[in-house]
Structure formats: C-alpha cells, structure tokens
Amino acid sequence: MSAHPTSHPAPHPARGLHLIADLAEGTAEALADPVLVERVLRAAAQAAKVRVVGLNLHHFGPQQGVTGVALLAESHISIHTWPEEGVAAIDIFVCGPHADAWAALRSIEAGLSMRVAAAQAIPRLGARR
Amino acid sequence: MSAHPTSHPAPHPARGLHLIADLAEGTAEALADPVLVERVLRAAAQAAKVRVVGLNLHHFGPQQGVTGVALLAESHISIHTWPEEGVAAIDIFVCGPHADAWAALRSIEAGLSMRVAAAQAIPRLGARR
Fold this sequence. Notes:
Two copies of one chain form a homodimer.
Chain A (H helix, E strand, L loop, with lengths): L15 E9 L3 H4 L2 H15 L3 E8 L6 E7 L2 E8 L4 E9 L5 H12 L2 E10 L5
C-alpha cells in the first residue's frame, strides 16, 4: 500500500475516477469470508487515502458470496464475491485530487490474493467533494 | 416503473450488467435530502425487481450532498449527490436474468427529477447470484 504508486498510471485528471475491475483466481475460502472482505475494504480505503463514512456487509451464507460497500467521503468502494467461481467484482469510485484509486485496487488484489481479469477507468462528472 | 421497458434497450445478455450514469439538472433541495435519496434507492430496487439486503446512507450536512448505497442480493445501486452543482452519480450493478437495470435508472431519473447527462452499460464477469 505505497502512498506513491509507480506501477500504474497516475489518477485521471478528472476529479472523479471510477475503476471497475473484475478479479479472478480467488480461493473459495477467502471469497466467502466476510471478515476478510471488510478488512480488505478498509485497507483499500486507507491505500487510496480516503475517509470511510459508513460500511455495510452482507454474507449470503456459509461458503457463499459476500457483498461489501464502503461509503466514502469521496464516493464508494464495493466488493462482490462469487466463491464458487473464484471471482470478485470491484468498484472504486473516488473523488478529489488526493484519492488514489489505483492504490486501492492494488491493495484489494493483494488482500484477496487475486489477479485483475478486466479493468477500466471511467472519469465521472461533477466530482467535487 | 413498468416491468417491461420499451424506451431503452433490453438488458445486456451477460448476466451482470452495470449501468453508470451521471445525472444533471437536479434541484439543490432534492439532492440534499437523505429521506428522498433513500426513497429513490428503494423505488429503484423495486423497479429493477431486485432484493435489498442492506441500505446505508450518509448525509454530509445541511445543504450538502448525500451518499446512499443499496446492497442487493443482485449486487448494488448507489447514488452520490452534489446539490451545489445539481448533479448526481448513479451506479446500478445488477445480476441475474430478472434484474432490470434500465427500469431502475428511469425510476431514479423520475424520482430525483433529473436527466441523464452521460451513461454507459458495462457487462460484468462471473455474474451469478
């Protein structure tokens, strides 16, 4: 969780940046673990240098998926997992010049021991908070 | 909130569909109203025929923005508002053959009395829940 990423491009110059990433090759055990998902969300927020104002998790049952969303002063980070397929869908939507969405994504990859299968970065409108 | 949309394309055949929409021309009053934002989130979920498993709202203060996320059995719907600019950023990420993301977007447009300034539909991987 370095504060100054070097392996990814700098954040998009638009004030709102939304990273959408689908991750693969996760273990069923990790992806069905709500405690881990919450820890990963909080670590991602810390890596992005954003402030968590709320956090909500839902576990669909033993060996089943987890949905978690961190509400941020700068928008949100969400994780949805499908343990049976080893995949997770990640959204990192952050606003402001100091938020580092790419650092959050690297933190989530590392925290869940997964790799990014597909990702895109989308600038968002009106992003001032 | 018709069950069978006619004015938008049918949902993407991929099982996960993520609509990203930036809305404009909202009133400052509506966009600073957390009660309205919660009602709009719940109506959007109903329009999409999805199930809310959690809901979290944060109001940044009087006359300030609201962040709300509905956690769904089918992923999530989020709304971030910027009353001072009359804009809102919407995400509707739904999985499964019955979820109607476009109906949710129309419901949010109507509920907030705004218009879509930019939107895109992104198929997401591994979408089975």
